[in-house]
């Protein structure tokens, strides 16, 4: 039997246009599943109960925090599209491929899965350990498709910091989950219907 060597692993850059819809969705759901599992394990290692972390708050003040930040982020994003050259905001076409022909129910599902999984890991587990600043740096780094340009990388960092801030202020993970969900849903619908027209 041949011995496996890590040095023989070669990473190949893939053009997003080479991805099939099935591979793209498979990649999305696998990475979100791993994100959820890592988040749950991390929370357990912190000797915290994931069910308590995801407790739904008794008052609805978190809705104002979540939708308020989402509104601010959408306004800033709108202005960035007019101020910054389009190629500087390019994510390699991944969002376009993910949402352009997707049915509305699936866009809602994607936004829900991504918001819950990523916020549980980043705000629920990592921010608890390292605070909002280092969490936001890590959040920007994992959004690797934006790292080629400093403007979207900076915007992802600031967005993450905002999500961390409303988590602290509202005292519930549901505020950043709601904000993240609404941003992803709105962006997905814009891409879908912009392409249809």
3D structure, described in words:
By secondary structure, the protein is mainly α. It is built from seven helices and no strands. Helix 3 packs across helix 7 (174-196). The radius of gyration is 18 Å and the shape is globular. It starts with 20 loop residues before the first helix and ends with a helix. The model has no long low-confidence stretch (mean pLDDT 87).
The tally of helices reads: 7
**What general outline do the C-alpha atoms trace?**
globular
Percent strand: under 5%
Low-confidence segments: none
Oligomer: single chain
Mean pLDDT, all residues: 87
How many angstroms separate the termini? 57 Å
What's the helical proportion of residues?
Answer: over 70%
- Would you count the extended β strands for me? 0
Keywords: Hydrolase, Membrane, Protease, Transmembrane, Transmembrane helix
InterPro entries: CAAX_protease (IPR052710), Rce1/LyrA-like_dom (IPR003675)
GO molecular function, one term: endopeptidase activity
Organism: Paenibacillus albidus
What's a quick, concise take on this entry?
Pfam families: Rce1-like. The protein has 197 residues and is mainly α.
List the helices and strands and how they pair.
Blueprint (H helix, E strand, L loop, with lengths): L20 H25 L4 H4 L7 H23 L10 H6 L4 H39 L7 H21 L3 H23 L1
């Amino acid at each position: 039997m041949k011995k496996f060597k890590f040095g023989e692993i070669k990473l190949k850059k893939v053009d997003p246009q080479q991805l099939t819809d099935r591979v793209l969705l498979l990649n999305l759901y696998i990475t979100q599943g791993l994100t959820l599992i890592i988040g749950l394990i991390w929370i357990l290692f912190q000797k915290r109960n994931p069910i308590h972390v995801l407790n739904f708050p008794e008052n609805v003040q978190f809705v104002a925090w979540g939708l308020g930040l989402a509104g601010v982020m959408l306004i800033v994003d709108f202005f960035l599209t007019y101020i910054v050259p389009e190629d500087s905001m390019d994510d390699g076409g991944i969002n376009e491929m993910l949402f352009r022909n997707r049915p509305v129910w699936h866009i809602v599902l994607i936004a829900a899965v991504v918001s819950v999984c990523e916020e549980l890991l980043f705000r629920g587990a990592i921010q608890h350990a390292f605070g909002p600043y280092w969490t936001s740096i890590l959040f920007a780094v994992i959004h690797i498709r934006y790292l080629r340009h400093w403007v979207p990388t900076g915007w992802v960092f600031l967005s993450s910091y905002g999500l961390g801030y409303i988590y602290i202020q509202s005292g519930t993970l549901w505020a950043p989950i709601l904000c993240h969900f609404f941003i992803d849903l709105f962006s997905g619908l814009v891409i879908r219907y912009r392409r249809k027209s």
